[in-house]
Amino acid sequence: MLFDTMTDAIGHTPLVRLRLGEERGVEVYAKLELQNPFAMKDRVARNIVLEARRLGTLLPGAPIIESSSGTMALGVALVGRSLGHAVHIVTDPRIDPITLAKLRALGCEVHIVEAMTSHGWQSARLERLEELMRDLPGAFWPQQYTNPDNPGAYRTLADELLRDLGGFDVLVGATGSGGSLCGSARALKESLPGLRVVGVDCVGSALFGQPDVPQRLQSGLGNSLLPKNLDRSLIDEVHWLNDHEAFAAAWDLAREQQIFAGNTSGSVYRVLGSLAATAAPGTRVVGIFPDRGDRYADTVYSDEHWARHDLSELPTAPAPRAVRPGDTALTWSHMPFQAPGELRRHLLFVESNTTGTGMLALGLARELDTVPVLLTGDPHRYAGLADTGCETLVCDANSQAELRRVIQERFRREEIAGITTTSDFYVPVVAELAHWLGLPGNPAEAMATCRNKATLRETLAAAGVRQPRFAVVREAEEVAAAVARVGLPCVVKPVDDSGSTNVLLCADEATATAHAARILAVRTNVRGLPTAGSALVEEYVDAPEFSVEMFSWDGGTECVGITAKTVTDGPHFVEHRHIFPADLPPATAEEITETVRAALDAAGVRLGATHTEVKLTAAGASVIEINPRLAGGMIPELVRRAGGVRLLEQQLRVAVGLPPELKPDTHGYAGIQFLLAPADGLLTAVDGTDAVRAMDGIEAVTLTAAPGDPVRTARGATDRLGHVIARADSGPQVADALDAALRHIALTVEN
């Protein structure tokens, strides 16, 4: 292969079949990560540094400081120096002469701590690193033990294994920072859900409940602290080897397989041998070999080192001894592993709807045995937040870097069950965070496409999905040409707002131009996020409107139902009545569903609920927009009342990796009527609500405005003043109940 830079040469490592288990029909492979330019952590350094530069947390030329005694130091040196950064490495006396020589040759400044502190060499290095961070303003610390970009780096390793080998059954890897094994396993389980994951640790490491012995001699695995990147819920079995066994295994790996590697690879090799001897014929096993042996010439491969530490006197085991929780491993031992039962799992919400499903979702999170956490820039915007009992983290939710910082500082990775939002505006950022954390989620590109109506229009056009004629304008002067292309009347709207905000039916070019100018003048939306700076001019489709509630999961997309919608006559389009399910002939419903399925496929939606608005024209269904989230307007509540499916709960289930439950247990109809002001002015009275509550078929009456509030005729969803929900055995019965409710409720508005 030809690469432009050394950074580009990272990865693409060989996969080699080992001479183990062949006689039993077991296939054992070694992924030679030691064949990276320096070692396995080259992947980590590249991913962390490039992401930090992309997000602006590492500025050009700013110094990089990392704590490492081995391969992470070399990886940071390789990537950091190649990108023009000064690199400071904090290490301890265990660093081998070859690594030290390489670091200095690459132009790094190496700081060697002199003595262990409270948690061994690890804590001593971290204390020195904090001093350097104070002394070097603007310095960036990769934080390999806490930064999810560490395990995220191993998506490329997982991709290489799947490309080279296809399916396999067992993954074996060492555990240190938690990055390589957990990152690889998490990514692989997306394609291989039945993959068995075996972690390799060392005697004297505290990672899996063993007593900590800081004087252990193995490097590259084990830890005195519990790294935040270690996700023990991914690991099915753990093996421990002592120093004698690990060092001897490295010698055997060199003699038997001609792979000159360090003690970490040796330990993995020893476990691979055990699995090869016990696995069922046909089993495929892959081990990750992280470190080459040249760093260990004075330790693993030194007779003097063995003699100095009396390594030959340590007892060894020819096969792993089964231990139970609470037992101490002194020689090679193994144990099936489950994450601690007391582990609290959190479901993170990045902002939320201020009404409706937003607060309901926080409460439902507890039913999934998770702790709800709201990350928000302004908790005061959420009425009833305190009643949900959720944890609130106040931060700049409009900053990807700030959200990452807060999540990284607050949680260990194994404490996070999922991440989601009920707000349109934060769907793309949640997709990015889900990818960063290796959590279930949609592709960020797909969410950005759906959120930008201009991009979505272009995507659907390329896929041949029926939709209105359209034109995108970025200057008011472009509207005349857009109107000529689209025709009159036309609809002018922002490409990235929500809830029918600033959507206007325009009868002439002058009105369209003026409205586009108003849209283009808005630089930030209601949540303070920057707007796209574009407007959409599109054909007005005068046809019945529906929304299609779809749910994607496990490679498929299921139609939960179709909602019949009634909107105001214009020039503003505000939905004021929904009835679920819509009474449609089966062939029509199928045609609408297939159109929406094609649109979702084109956009790239893969997971969870979507709410797609369509109009049913004489030529067929025409897609108006895809909302890549749960329906608003209380439609999920109508779905629940009509058929028993709790869509909001299903959205939360897939966010934490559980399958959705979409089969209805009842069959009925439900509808909602929104209350709208008859005029602009001051709301002085609302009469008739008690009588409506007593009517047959009425299940809820809710007011969101009170006498004394200023109100206006509806221009968007935020102008609704309340709603009435009805349920019956047929759609016409629901409509009759809502009509009766409207006749009894009187809204008095004074100018």
Task: Please sum up the structure shown.
This protein has 751 residues and is an alpha/beta fold. It has 23 helices and 30 strands.
Q: What can you tell me about this protein's structure?
A:
Strands 1-2-9-6-7-8-11-10 form an 8-stranded mixed sheet, sandwiched between helices. The chain has an 8-stranded antiparallel sheet with strand order 24-23-20-21-22-25-29-27, with helices on both faces. It has a 4-stranded parallel sheet with strand order 14-13-12-15, covered by helices on one side. By secondary structure, the chain is α/β, with parallel strands linked by helices. The radius of gyration is 30 Å and the shape is elongated. Helix 6 crosses helix 7 (179-189). The longest helix is centred in the last third of the chain and has 18 residues, at 586-603. It contains 23 helices and 30 strands.
* Low-confidence sequence ranges: none
Radius of gyration: 30 Å
Count of DSSP-assigned helices: 23
- Tell me the quaternary state: single chain
Summarize the helices and strands and which ones pair or pack.
Elements: E1 15-17, E2 27-32, H1 41-55, E3 64-67, H2 71-82, E4 87-91, H3 97-105, E5 109-112, H4 120-135, H5 149-152, H6 155-165, E6 170-174, H7 179-189, E7 196-202, E8 237-241, H8 243-257, H9 263-278, E9 284-289, H10 303-308, E10 321-322, E11 333-336, E12 346-350, H11 357-364, E13 371-376, H12 385-388, E14 391-394, H13 400-410, E15 416-420, H14 427-437, H15 444-451, H16 453-463, E16 470-473, H17 479-486, E17 490-494, E18 504-506, H18 509-521, E19 535-539, E20 545-553, E21 556-567, E22 575-580, H19 586-603, E23 608-617, E24 620-627, H20 635-643, H21 647-655, E25 669-675, E26 681-687, H22 689-693, E27 698-703, E28 710-711, E29 722-728, H23 731-744, E30 746-750
Parallel strand pairs: 2-9, 3-4, 4-5, 6-7, 6-9, 7-8, 10-11, 12-13, 12-15, 13-14
Antiparallel strand pairs: 1-2, 8-11, 16-19, 17-18, 17-19, 20-21, 20-23, 21-22, 22-25, 23-24, 25-29, 26-28, 26-30, 27-29
